[in-house]
Write a structure and sequence with these properties.
binds zinc ion, single chain, alpha/beta, 24% helix, six-stranded mixed beta sheet, 14 strands, Metallo-beta-lactamase, Chain A, 7 helices, globular
């Protein structure tokens, strides 16, 4: 299994690339505005078909989608509840007032991922756990040892939970802390303690570490 993390862009967001050794498909998760860095990494990988899968539709995670869709004729998958956020991505980019965000291209969705759907792509199998609160259709992609040739379970968790923190709830589509924390506890903190969490920003962590020390998650269980 190959997993690449590409941090960068105006919001220092993590983009992920994944594939199993013998697949000709490559999964691209949350391509942000660090387009050159993502492109450099893709160029080093041997594959035939690219599939773009997003945790959610905030601008820092979706900015590069249309660019890579066009370049690699890649289909784009996301949860349907993120559509209203996609619709306002141009407005959102204006608010940031950053020149590089002046004209984001709005991507068309090719497949809506349903709640807890299991996807089989690039020789890997993963569950798409719906963990709303930061945004209505926030998905966490859960890769288990049982279904993949990997040594530890891991989750690509978008902006739901970070090392020592959780996602903001005051951005477009957010609800409230109690809702987000409840969903994190219900969907993610029940996974094995050594499950690695790869967040949308910052370093990786583990379920057991966050259960013990994440100040936002303590006291809500
Ligand atoms: Zn976000
Ligand atoms: Zn983000």
């Amino acid at each position: 299994m190959n997993l690449f993390v590409i941090p960068g862009g105006a919001f220092v967001e993590n983009t992920y690339l994944l594939k199993s050794d013998n697949s000709n498909e490559l999964i691209l998760i949350d391509p942000g505005s660090q387009i050159n860095e993502i492109e450099d990494q893709i160029a080093k990988i041997d594959f035939e078909k690219l599939i773009i899968v997003n945790t959610h539709a905030h601008l820092d995670h979706i900015y590069g989608v249309q660019y890579f869709k066009e370049k690699y004729s890649a289909p784009f998958y996301i949860h349907k509840l993120e559509l209203p956020i996609i619709d306002v991505m141009v407005d959102a980019s204006m608010r940031f007032g950053l020149e590089e965000f002046a004209n984001p291209k709005v991507p068309k969705v090719d497949k809506f991922i349903s709640d807890d759907e299991v996807l089989r792509l690039a020789g890997l199998e993963f569950s798409c756990l719906l963990v709303p609160g930061h945004s209505p259709g926030s998905l966490c992609f859960y890769f288990s040892k049982e279904n993949n040739n990997i040594e530890q379970d891991f989750v690509i968790c978008g902006d739901t939970v970070f090392a020592g923190s959780i996602g903001r709830v005051d951005l477009t589509g957010g609800t409230n802390m109690e809702d987000l924390v409840g969903n994190i506890n219900k969907k993610l903190m029940i996974l094995p303690d050594d499950t690695v969490l790869f967040p949308g920003h910052g370093p990786e962590t583990q379920v057991g570490i966050e259960k013990k020390s994440n100040p936002f998650l303590l006291g809500y269980t």
